[in-house]
# Entry
Amino acid sequence: MTMLSLLVTAILVKSALCSAPSGPWDPFNLAPESRTVYALAIHGVNGTVLDASNLVGEKGGCAILAGDGSYVTLDFGYEVGGLISLNVDETSEASSLALSFTESPLYISPLTSDDSAAQSANMSYDGVLYLPTPLKIAYWTMPPARLRGGFRYLTIVSKSVSSVTVSNVSLAITFSPHVEDLRDYMGYFYTEDPTYFDADFLTKLWYSGAYTVQAATVAVDTGRQDPPVQSPGWANNATAGIAGPIIVDGAKRGRAVWSADLGLAVSTQFVSTNDLVPTRNAISTLFNEQNPVTGELPYSGPPLSEQGSDTYQAWTLIGTYNYYLYSGDYAWLEEIWSNFTKAMQYLENKVDDTGLLNVTATGDWGRLWQGGLNSEANAIFYRALLNSAEIATYMNDSTLAATYISKATTLKTQFNKAFWLSDEGMYRDNTTSTLCPQDANSLAVLFNLTMSAEQASSVSAGLTRYWNAYGAVSPELPDNIAPFIGAMELQAHFVSGNDARAMDLLHLEWGYMLYTPISVQSTLLEGYTSNGSLYYRSYDGYNYDASFTSHSHGWSTGPTSALTFYVLGLTVTSPMGQTWAVAPHTSGLSFAQGGFETPLGWFGVEWSLDGANFTILLEMPKGTNGVVTVPIQGSVSLDGQKVDVEGDILVTGGNHTIVVYN
# Structure
């Protein structure tokens, strides 16, 4: 099928996109049924608060706060974000009321909210939001600029000796503003994990990642002001891009586009909601701010618009490829193609006589020691070259595609010569270091820079030396666990065939994030320290206050797509899934099912392992083609007919049953 006919097909079927099927996975969908939500419980009361329980749920009863410093903390039960409304029912001219917000229960306070603004050198907190005084008997809603993008706990505090009566406390959800039904996912995933204390963990984790990205999808005029207009305080009324809705890094903060985050969040979007317009707007925003002379891209969107990262430049190019692979948005690709090739040339110009990228713009995900002939940067650049070659083919530029392939081939050879340490069985950080970093080694396996299966497995084994009870500690960011890079490692274990190791890492790192009582137990942490505390060294290397850590960060959602791409085994291999692949990793599980939607239709997989027999059911759009790799050996039948299998099974679109029996 030609690209033109592929696009015509996409236009014709786009209106036929439908929801994922219902099933036992539905209760794990965290998205609220209504955009108006209410507290689920009272977390605590201090001082004199009468009838505090009336503030829970929709009943809207009254509670009385009496005395300066008296407060009640409401628990919404999971991560939420938006604008609080309440009724002031009885008051006096001397009464005063304020609200504070926090994601973690560790930072519940009547004096301050957790930190979303990082507004000063001493990392002062955000403070509280005062209701206008003198208080009036009225229905009050937070000003839009004071939107609180991510929190679980709301504290209502009396700031005077005079009492005040409040009722009808509610929250208007503001994230994913373009979506009518937040629970209407286009994809799903379901399994049971017999090896973990909670058999539903993997399903919960898939949906927590999906909800995390939903919470980080915002209206374009609700970015974080930097610095805020008042201190202490916060303001979420900055313009975050050229169009909305737009995907940003985190719900609470920083509420700006970050290109590396797209490397994981876009795939999460695709397999869960297939809501890719926010991604298109985010990438278009970065290209819109491209330096027209050098081709350099910012590594964050407005209002930050920070420059100076070769790795994030490459991540933008990878994100562009992923968006096109999932969407087939050829018209958009044509629009940004000249920007894309200019951005590639910016990186190509930094390749020196070693054949490696020489990093001069050292901004990165927070790691130390970036710069020069760095292995992580070269691994990302290698992937960008291969992706760019494929995109050039779609753009009918075979000469440019061949050039990118040639450069990638040279880079792979030089990468292994420069960075491989045979005594360690891993790659080193740079040509003058013996440190074996988590990021470069994970990416080398994931992006196929290894020269053999044995080498990939050696790297997979070597990465476990950094594990502890809370996850994988990054030696290139000492004492920190970074789920962004942890997700790359997770995929590397799957790619190298070490599925049990991948599952162990899921249990350690994401199990901790999802169940620890110091987080929101719904969305996923930006990062944390090696002892499980919330202090995390932020993206630019500055030691921010622990309450600044985001508890809903898209770059931590890698398991959502990994469970679909590897455990379920379903991937698309050309735009929109015109071609696809199914290669399940059974990973100690007895079954898995799920799928996703593209403009071509529904892609569904259901597999089960019963003793020595394996069965897989496929539901693929007509007119597509795929390959199926079965995870066990044995006699194989396709739709009841025995087939001789020497490698992959070629399958056309439609409904099919494959059985491997022994």
In short: The chain has three domains: 3-23+566-661, 31-173, 188-565. Residues 398-419 form the longest helix (22 residues). The longest strand covers residues 62-90. The chain is about 30% helix and 25% strand.
